[in-house]
Amino acid sequence: MRLLSYFTDFGIEYIMLKSFLRSMSVSMLIVGTMIGAGFASGREIVTFFGEVPNAVVALIAGVLVFACSVLFLFVGRRVKKSDIGEVNGAVFGKCRALADIFMLFNSVVVLGAMLAGTDSLVAEFIDLGPLPSIVIGILCAIISARGLKGLLKANAALVPIMVVVIAVACILAIEFPLKLFSARFAPHYVLLYVAMNMILGGGVLTTVNNLSPREILLSSAVASAVISALLMCITAALHSCSAAHADLPMLLVALKSGKVMYFVCLFVIGAAIFTTMLTAFKSLYDYLFGIVKYKWLTAALVLASGLFVGAFGFSNVVGGYPIIGGIGLVYIACNIWYLIRTRVKRKVRREAKKVKAKVRREAKKTGLGKTLRKARRESVKQIQSV
Quick one: which of 37, 3, 9 has its CA closest to 313? Predict the structure, then answer.
């Protein structure tokens, strides 16, 4: 009995550990999607919130990230599809084509920004033109071809390192006293910011359909806490030094702590570019593969479209993010309506089943069921005789 109890306890602990690791893996996917070149470099934050952002932004953004993550993961749980095109078909119905076009446009813009960010990062040392973005794009193609598992593993390995380095670089650059809540801020820009970032994540999160409600809440809570804390750190760092004018403000923030931190931050921005690029690349790859059917031709088309957008330059592409955020709000609203609509349908079906079961029980008790079946058989015989 003791041996049986030991194995039972071990099995329960193993299942709980596996569930926890699955939740953490998805939370790192959410964080990795948001911490792209724009976030890790600080350029995206300056674009949305100004040169010295108000720290309230970080708190509101954390709540919104949690809400959007829960939304998309619950949509994935309900739709139970592994392809974003099928998910859009279930959520948008006849308007699926519009949703597909928007998701493709968003993914192409983000992919182009990440590829342009790669070239800008390498240009800090040597100008190699588009060669760095082509090399990193090929690597993305290889990982994307491996499916969602490859994406989750890449994020699980890189994201924790990125989070720690960004936080440390910002904390070391902070100078007191700070006036984090003195700057003005526009709440609608926080909505646009989160919508823009979460739309890209939504293209992948809605295809994650194996999480329990508890795992969904845990992964969303961890991701939102990490994003909120990092936003607070970057905000404090931007208040402490005049770095907003730079193409990659975080590099100037890191330089305050010496060249070692500068080079470490370079690596982190590169990793941030890579994780977001992977998400954008995979969203495009999965959609086009359903049409083209050839892996490497699909990968080549995705890379070519990203390079074309990236040719406009990193700052220019990131400057267009608020427009995507505005359209993203509509996309999020449609997903909310889908959950409400399907929940109502499920409730109606459950009530209908209860009523049918009750009618059957009553008919069985009163003998009415036999009478109705007999009358039905006689009517069928009459019809056949005619």
Answer: 37
